[in-house]
Automatic annotation (TrEMBL):
Superkingdom classification of source: Eukaryota
Catalytic activity entry: (6S)-NADHX + ATP = ADP + phosphate + NADH + H(+); (6S)-NADPHX + ATP = ADP + phosphate + NADPH + H(+)
The protein's name: ATP-dependent (S)-NAD(P)H-hydrate dehydratase
Positions that bind ATP: G236, S237, G238, R239, R240, A241, G242, G243, Q244, G245
GO molecular function term, any single one: ATP-dependent NAD(P)H-hydrate dehydratase activity
GO biological process: one example: metabolite repair
Function: Catalyzes the dehydration of the S-form of NAD(P)HX at the expense of ATP, which is converted to ADP. Together with NAD(P)HX epimerase, which catalyzes the epimerization of the S- and R-forms, the enzyme allows the repair of both epimers of NAD(P)HX, a damaged form of NAD(P)H that is a result of enzymatic or heat-dependent hydration.
Cofactor(s) the protein needs: Mg(2+)
Boundaries of every YjeF C-terminal domain copy: 30-317
């Protein structure tokens, strides 16, 4: 596959069509060009058109994780971000930022309110700071089933992946536009062990619209469509701050929505290609934020320092 320099819109469209029809793996330079093409213009847009993202997570122990995911989705470019969390976590998360819309509806008694909010979202992220209480895991399964009925694009991370591990078939045959799982090495190992051994490649178990971004020193993207897979280790640092995965999941939600609305392939593989492009963009941005923050803070770098770099990293990588 050739790598070319893109200078106009029609050339970008040609590149995207070529990648959709390709039988070899995506090239990272081409993925970067395609990412630039999905970013919406700011002029002439109404509030909400650049994305409404829902973050399902948070608990009395973990209030930072849903904040990091939500504020990252917002800073990357989503217009509205909603955090659906527990009653005791809601006021704490609200105190972190007035820019987030926070609902205390993560409980079995608020199912109708929760389902109504989910119906309005462009993309839903499940997992940051969710916790592993039995009641929460049960509720998480119900939320996944609701999203499946609504055909909502999903990003599942952290304790959301634990919930999937507890009921490994919960995502089986999830419909288009699909779900993206974002496990680290430990989480991926747990999922691999839970997938039935006769299922072929473990990441194909859930069907053609569920993909996996395995995070680590080298990020690996697994898709049911072989040419849409990629591997990248560009950027980042040796410092792995807690909360970095939440930054990635929130960023991914915004990019996922943009990619889906760009109708990249204009065929039956459009959703899977959108997943691949969005996963690349989020991983690339997160690694860039990490390396930039590390340049300033070194070993003392924390996730909050990475948030400060989102604007600069976005401009350097995609504008």
């Amino acid at each position: 596959m050739c790598i070319i320099i893109i200078t106009n819109l029609s050339a970008i469209q040609t590149l995207m069509l070529n990648e959709c029809a390709s039988t070899t793996d995506l090239q990272l330079p081409n993925l970067k060009v395609i990412t630039k093409s999905i970013i919406p213009e700011l002029n002439g847009k109404g509030k909400g058109e650049a994305g409404k993202v829902g973050i399902i997570g948070g608990s009395v122990e973990y209030t930072g994780a849903p904040y990091f995911a939500a504020i990252s989705a917002l800073r990357v470019g989503a217009d509205l971000v909603y955090v659906i969390t527990t009653e005791n976590a809601a006021p704490i998360i609200k105190s972190y930022s007035p820019d987030l819309i926070v609902y205390p509806f993560l409980n079995a008694h608020s199912a109708s309110k929760l389902n109504f909010i989910l119906s309005k979202m462009d993309v839903v992220v499940i997992g940051p700071g969710l916790g592993r209480d039995d009641d929460i895991i049960k509720l998480t399964h119900e939320i996944i089933q609701t999203c499946q009925t609504l055909k909502k694009p999903l990003v599942i991370d952290a304790d959301g992946l634990y919930a999937v591990w507890k009921n490994i078939s919960i995502l089986k045959d999830y419909p288009s536009p699909g779900a993206i799982l974002t496990p680290n090495h430990k989480e991926a190992t747990r999922l691999i062990q839970a997938v039935p051994s006769k299922s072929g490649a473990w990441y194909d178990y859930w069907g053609k619209y569920v993909s996996v971004l395995s995070k680590g020193e080298q990020d690996r993207y697994h898709s049911s469509i072989v040419p849409f897979r990629w591997t990248s280790s560009d950027g980042g640092s040796g410092r792995r701050a807690g909360g970095q995965g939440d930054i990635l999941s929130g960023s991914l939600a915004t990019f996922f929505n943009w990619a889906l609305k760009s109708y990249i392939c204009e065929n039956e593989q459009s959703a899977q290609f959108a997943q691949s492009v969005a996963a690349y963009a989020a991983a690339k941005l997160t690694r860039s934020c990490n390396s930039k923050a590390y340049e300033t803070y070194g070993r003392s770098m924390i996730a909050s320092d990475m948030l400060k770099e989102i604007h600069r990293a976005f401009e350097d990588e995609f504008e």
